[in-house]
Amino acid sequence: xxxxxxxxxxxxxxxxxxxxxxxxxxxxxxxxxxxxxxxxxxxxxxxxxxxxxxxxxxxxxxxxxxxxxxxxxxxxxxxxxxxxxxxxxxxxxxxxxxxxxxxxxxxxxxxxxxxxxxxxxxxxxxxx
Length: 128
Fold this sequence. Notes:
This protein has three helices and five strands; from the N terminus they run E-E-H-E-E-H-H-E. The protein is α+β, with helices and mostly antiparallel strands. The protein has a five-stranded antiparallel β-sheet with strand order 1-3-4-2-5. It is globular.
């Protein structure tokens, strides 16, 4: 399913596009169906249980444009209320366990993980 949003009702329902996000890009796995099942049944619940401060998790299959294939199979975006919340979450024991599990289920190679912070690039937008 493209654009699958994995949610936990305990997460804050208020959302703004101008929030810091942890992005995880997963390379094409050896078995896409198995990867997506492990992501939904194991990894997403682990994220919800272990990463406090997160307000939203969106997970999507990645597709190429036209005849170009995509360099990744899956993208996860984990939204946080502040950079402090994000930094605390990824440095926590739960964050370390969640990162290790992400690497474990990524059978196509190590996932690419990075942070996007719109707060500094959203000129004219009010900050929270």
